[in-house]
Each structure stands twice: as structure tokens, then as C-alpha cells.
Amino acid sequence: MVTVSYGDRMGFLRRQAEALAGEAALREWIVVANGNVGLVRAAGLKPVPRMVELASNGGSAVGFAAGLKAALDDPGNARVLLLDDDNLPGPGVIDGLLAIGADAVAAYRPRLYWVEARGIAARRTDSCLGFHLFDLPGKLWRRVVGPPAVRARVVMRSAGYGGLLVTRGLVERIGLPDPAFVLYADDTEWTMRAGGVVLATDLVVEDMDRSDDGGPGCSRCGAGLRCRTRSGCTTGRGTRRSSMPSGCGGTA
Q1: Domains of the chain, each with CATH number or no CATH
Q2: What angle do CA 115, 103, 98 make, to 5 degrees?
Q3: By C-alpha distance, which of 82, 86, 84 is closest to 105?
């Protein structure tokens, strides 16, 4: 299992460690210290992880690529579970993901996969940042009659890193996350290469960090919004760039 940590988020990381302590299916825990090596070393984590130390925070793609490489350098690791440092897996999540047996399986994160879990049509390829005029009738209908029920299994076009289990064979086929994205949508672009991700709605991973819900400094504002918009447009067109504009570094 690989967790990527950045900044002073040791409270989240300690809670994650506590949740993992009783997981018999956990063969090895790797923590990527993405520019916060001293903080992770001093956190006193139990179980004690194997650390991958990055001197500076190069973004989420760099962190998860480093963690995947470290995990798959060990020939005994046939599958790797990825977690953000604020992800809190529920009991039995790891065993449940392993039992599904697909190349890419995502645990249910209610704040991230609410739409997908209900089988609502995926974003249209010609939408503008997820908005499309032809989606309005369906949205209005759901306001009136309520949302559809959650489905047990859904195949998604893409997924986030947190709560995603991938096989060695898949990573060998699609490669590692693209560091050119720096921030936002690097997970989308990477998982789109997989050709489908199974969402298991009965296996829940909670997001402990709620700072993205809004307020001062949220990543939907300022430079964060610019990076999110840029990367979202890139993946929405289904294309990749060899380089990205500068000015979007600094967080993972």
C-alpha cells in the first residue's frame, strides 16, 4: 500500500495508521514524504512504514509515481492500494478490494463518487468543465423525483488516486502518472489509460480533510482554480501535453 503525504498533515496520517494497524491483508505500507520528510519521520507512525523521501513537493503525480515504483520494485507486490494521506479506509476495505480481482478497483468515497455511484451518465466529452446544456433536463428531473439509488458496482471512465487498487500488470501496461500535470487531473488522465475502473460502493474510504469545501485558501480559488481548469480541459479533450504552464506548483 502507498500513501502520499505532504505538508503538516500528520494528524490525518496518524488516524490512517490506526485504521491500518489491524489489517491482516496489508503486506507493506509505503509512505511517500512529498517534501515533508522531517514531519513524517517524527510522526511516530505505527505500523512503521517504509519511507520514500522526496526533497521537495513536486505534486501528486510525482509522489504517486515514486510510491508505485517503490512498491513494484518488490516482486512480491502484485497489487498496490493507493491512498491520500487524509483517506480513512473502513473495516475490511482492503480485503474487499482484493476479492474483486479487477485490474483497477476503486473504493467508494462519498464526496468524490456520489454521481458515479448512482449510475448517472458520465460527463460528456464536449462539455465545458462538466457543464453541458443537454444535461439540464436530467438534473431538473432528479431535483423533482430525487437521485437514483446507489448501485453495487459501477464501471467508471476514471478515478482518483485515493482508495484505488491497481495490479502490477496494469501499471506495466499504462505506465506511471504524468508529472507534467503537476496539480489536478493527473489522476484522471492516468486512470483513463486503464480503460475502465470498477467502483465498489460497499467498500468505503472517507476523506478526512474537508478544506476543499470552500472558504479562504481553498483549492477552488486563485491559482488552484486555474490549475484545476487547465488540467480538466486537457483531460476533457482526451489529449496529453508534454509540458504544462508554470506557476501551479507548491501543493500535492
Answers
A1: 2-236 (3.90.550.60)
A2: 85
A3: 82
Q: How many whole angstroms separate alpha carbon 252 and alpha carbon 216?
A: 18
Question: Backbone dihedral region of 247: left (phi > 0), alpha (psi from -120 to 50 degrees) or beta?
Answer: left
- CA 144 from chain center: how many Å? 32
Give the C-alpha separation, 248 to 244, whole Å: 9
Residues 6+ apart with CB under 8 A from 49: 3, 17, 29, 30, 31
* Distance, CA of 63 to CA of 67 (rounded, Å): 6
For 250: left if phi > 0, alpha if psi spans -120 to 50, otherwise beta; the answer is left
Instruction: Give pLDDT, residue 22.
Output: 81
Sequence-separated (6 or more) residues with CB below 8 Å from residue 110: 204, 206
Determine the 3-state secondary structure of 97 from DSSP: helix
C-beta of residue 100 within 8 angstroms of C-beta of residue 107: no
Pick the residue with more confidence: 136 or 97?
A: 97
Q: Are the CB atoms for 117 and 154 separated by under 8 Å?
A: yes
Give me the pLDDT at residue 123, please.
56
